[in-house]
Amino acid sequence: MNLAGDYPYDFKKCVEFHGHLCPGLAIGYSAVKAAEGLMKTKASEDEELVCLVENNSCAVDAVQVLLGCTFGKGNLIFRDWGKQVFTFFDRNSGRAVRASFKQSNPAREAQRELREKIDSGTATEEDKKQFRKLREDYTKSLISEPASYFDVKEIKMDPPPLAQIADTLPCEICGEQTMVSRMVQREGSMICKDCAK
């Protein structure tokens, strides 16, 4: 993917993984960079570093690329709280850092109005150009000034549980292999939650 503009190499890797450049991705990138000031974060080979994310936005892709935290390894934990908040826990040191997004896009209202015009088909070429410029300016600001967009503090927390390897059994209704720990027992049968509805 060819990126116009001067972006750091590691952000370009995030864009390559995510598929496009956007402010949401830059928020995740900035969260990691802001947290580095309190805790030296580095990519996790296994579960040494855990990230708890409180959203499922574009931002999480940057966390995966920069820190190696993934659902597959069990060191990316999703809490559906709708916040741009990222907590990083280092199992080796027992330290945790919480980065909370504090500052929204200063041009948010102008962008919203332009987005409405674009979506309704009434935007001029100048409107579209202005919209792209506002997004690009905001993205560059996030990347170059991460500490100004986040409240970052060290917190105390218990270690998140390690990833669990669980036995699977076929659901007695649909036959699909299902983690036993996620199955429901109904009238003596072990069934998946989907079939239990």
Beta-strand percentage range: 15-25%
**Structural class of the secondary elements?**
alpha+beta
End-to-end Cα distance: 43 Å
How many independent structural domains? 2
Give the neighbour order of strands across the main sheet: 2-1-3-4-5
User: What is the CATH topology assignment of the largest domain?
Assistant: 60s Ribosomal Protein L30, Chain: A
Specify the biggest β-sheet. Answer: 5 strands, mixed
Instruction: Give average pLDDT, whole number.
Output: 91
How does this structure look, described?
- There is one protein chain.
- The protein has helices spanning 9-18, 23-35, 59-67, 108-120, 125-144, 146-149, 193-196, and strands at residues 49-53, 76-78, 85-90, 96-101, 150-155, 168-170, 177-179, 184-186, 189-191.
- The chain has 197 residues and is α+β, with helices and mostly antiparallel strands.
- The protein folds into 2 domains: 9-106 and 141-155, 2-Layer Sandwich (60s Ribosomal Protein L30, Chain: A); 167-197, 2-Layer Sandwich (Wheat Germ Agglutinin (Isolectin 2), domain 1).
- The chain has a 5-stranded mixed β-sheet.
- The radius of gyration is 21 Å and the shape is globular.
